[in-house]
């Protein structure tokens, strides 16, 4: 899909679990990008009474926290590693999340700006990559991703279970137009983000020049 000359480019992030997609999205946001985050929308969807009710009906009140809201960690332990349970959760939550993501991407594309960043763990699996003008792969060694996952309270087995339900990294890497190193220091990663941002700015200036604006 080609971006309109007057509107921002839509970038979709690809990478392994804990490769730093949300961190890099914040870096782009600091430079002025609009971020559409599946994680933030997922929180909002889980708080909807009808969604929460369907989740409790299938997995019981054991997946709720003390305040009666869905505890994502508890729910994750129930569904990841079990294809049938994961598909059941996706059937409950994904339609609402994807509909809102598509709405926000469309609205952001029509607005002014340099770039819109789509931060979604299942970008390709949910066919959200078809809404993006370019894909960015975040290169991060497994050791670094595992360390980040452990900091979240996971272990190596949990990381592997979750990644089994995603496209292979080599497939994602081949699809990408840009590759950023996200396993090094934050300063190194931000420098690469700035370089890509300047490249996008240059492309925007060229489009404006061709339009005579």
Any overview of this molecule?
This protein has 213 residues and is α/β, with parallel strands linked by helices. The chain has a domain at 9-41 and 104-211: 3-Layer(aba) Sandwich (Rossmann fold), CATH 3.40.50. The protein has helices spanning 21-31, 38-46, 49-59, 72-79, 83-110, 142-151, 156-163, 169-175, 186-211, and strands at residues 9-15, 34-37, 115-119, 134-139, 178-181. It has a five-stranded parallel sheet with strand order 2-3-1-4-5, sandwiched between helices. The longest helix is centred in the middle third of the chain and has 28 residues, at 83-110. The two termini are 23 Å apart.
How do you describe this structure in short?
With 213 residues, the chain is an alpha/beta fold. The protein has helices spanning 21-31, 38-46, 49-59, 72-79, 83-110, 142-151, 156-163, 169-175, 186-211, and strands spanning 9-15, 34-37, 115-119, 134-139, 178-181.
Label this structure with key terms.
single chain; 213 residues; alpha/beta; Rossmann fold; five-stranded parallel sheet; 9 helices; disordered N terminus
Helices and strands, in N-to-C order?
A: EHEHHHHEEHHHEH
Q: Got a strand count? A: 5
Mean pLDDT: 89
Rounded to an integer in angstroms, the radius of gyration calculated over CA atoms is: 18 Å
If you consult CATH, what is the topology of the domain at 9-41 and 104-211?
Rossmann fold
Shape: globular
In the CATH hierarchy, what is the class of the domain at 9-41 and 104-211?
Alpha Beta
Output the structural class. Answer: alpha/beta
The CATH architecture of the domain at 9-41 and 104-211 is 3-Layer(aba) Sandwich
Spans with pLDDT under 50 lasting ≥5 residues? 1-5
End-to-end distance: 23 Å
Strand percent estimate: 5-15%
> Could you estimate the helical fraction of the residues in percent?
55-70%
Biggest sheet descriptor: 5 strands, parallel
Query: How many helical elements?
Result: 9
CATH superfamily of the domain at 9-41 and 104-211: P-loop containing nucleotide triphosphate hydrolases
Record the strand order, biggest sheet: 2-3-1-4-5
